[in-house]
Amino acid sequence: MWPSLEPAGALADVGHAYPQAGAIHIDLCSLRVYFEAGSYGSENVESSVLTSEQRRLVEGKEYNISNCSRRQFLRSSLYASTGLLGVGPVLSALACGGPPDPLPSDRFDRRVLADLHIHSLIDDWNRNTPLGIRYPAIADFADRYFNRSGMNWRDCHAAGIDLICAAHFNVFDEWLSMPTDSNPEAPTQTFRMMDHLEEELSGPAEPYARLARNRHQLAEFLDIPKDSPEYRVAVVHTVEGGHALGGSIYPLEKLASRGVAMLDITHFFSKDVASAANSFPFFPDANSRRPNLGLSEFGREVVCEMERLGMIVDVTHATATAVEDVLDVACRPIAVSHGASRTLAEHPYSLYDEHIQEIVARGGIFGVILDPYLLTNYANVHYAERSGSLRDVVRMVRHLVKLCGGHEHIAIGSDFAGYTVAPSDMPRLSYVHRLTKMLKDEFEDRRMVEDIMANNAIDFLMANWKTGG
Ligand SMILES: [Zn+2]
């Protein structure tokens, strides 16, 4: 247990990762784990403030993930959780949040927000995975310290949100069998997550949200006026990461029959589907030759089968090579559910402008992520968390509209409740009207803003989502 907190902004060096990645750090203010230099930008270590006693405790716990094995990595996570939980009550008071906006007057607008990517139940999912059950401290840790932009259905309903694409992704299960091996249990876990969401929507969330199993239901739900007692936030199943397939093509058919609209073919690890864009430098894909591998043979099969089934291919998190490979293989429009342009944000995660133009020219959709760190070139996550705001989102939207010669294929994919940094002036999804207002101020075109916030994503789903009957 750590006896005390150091001042805000202090950094704790908890060991050294393998050479390409640089050192691992935990920010004691935000408790966000991040990294020095390495291949992932130019993050600097400001200082190390651990007392010698704290350092001894931390460094003794195998944080060194050089030549990291899965077992070592998970053990490290567990130690981090148990060590940091001791300061939870103090830190929770520092978390972003506060009361939601007063009910905005325009919540009855025909459209408020259709969000292409949000992790609506990630905390519960993590808690219900085999790892979460065995080591609840890990799930507690992730929930309490990383999930700052967590949402609740009632607030989304009160804000008048139209549609949420609920992304099924379990951070812990993806890490199992890392880096490249498939986890044969992954499809089972994905279906459990879908069950869990459906139980939530027919149980405690029933007054606020309901599942649309196909585009016809979605159209029906979206026709209900916001002032009707029948109005609910429409929710659509989507999946993040080809690892969810467990290395097999067969789960796709069942995912399609259950109405999964979109699957993001890769995530933190390639998992023999498509190379992943190095989200974290200490992950074993980083600095390997893997980022250049693009779409695997299995990945090609996945894309073709998804198109056959009417499921939308999402290339968020894919490397540039993988994006090009998908564009070579795909016959139907594809999606970037939560992305950014590399022109404004120099991250491996961001897409090159020419790829964005190609995706849009072929009828695709580009959902802008609302994480200021990934929208800009802030020196590090810590700085982005302090200084990032909706201005960063507006700047990205402006760039994309210009790049694409119009706004018709630009949408929003917040990635909220998914361990990302939220804009300081939009800590929760229920503050969405602040984004709308800023976009209206920028473009002075109410209809265009409504399209970006909702209509474009809805039109794209209506045209391209063919699963679920
Ligand atoms: Zn993502």
Structure overview:
Strands 4, 5, 6, 7, 8 and 9 form a six-stranded parallel sheet that branches. A three-stranded antiparallel sheet has the order 1-2-3. A three-stranded parallel sheet has the order 10-11-12. The model is unreliable at 1-100 (pLDDT under 50). The chain contains 19 helices and twelve strands. It is of the alpha/beta class. Zinc ion is lined by residues 240, 316-317, 338, 415.
The average pLDDT is 77
Q: Write down how many β-strands occur, each being a DSSP E stretch of 2 or more residues.
A: 12
Give me the CATH fold name of the largest domain: TIM Barrel
Range of strand content: 5-15%
Main sheet: strands, sense, barrel: 6 strands, parallel
Query: Unreliable segments (pLDDT under 50, ≥5 consecutive)?
Result: 1-100
Query: What oligomeric state is this?
Result: single chain
Output the radius of gyration.
Answer: 21 Å
Give helix % range: 25-40%
Q: Helix tally?
A: 19
CATH superfamily of the largest domain: Metal-dependent hydrolases
Distinct bound molecules: zinc ion
Report the CATH architecture of the largest domain.
Alpha-Beta Barrel
CATH class of the largest domain: Alpha Beta
- The backbone outline, from C-alpha atoms, is globular
Structural class: alpha/beta
Overall domain count: 2
Give the key terms.
6-stranded parallel sheet, single chain, 2 domains, globular, TIM Barrel, disordered N terminus, 469 residues, 39% helix, binds zinc ion, alpha/beta, 3-stranded antiparallel sheet
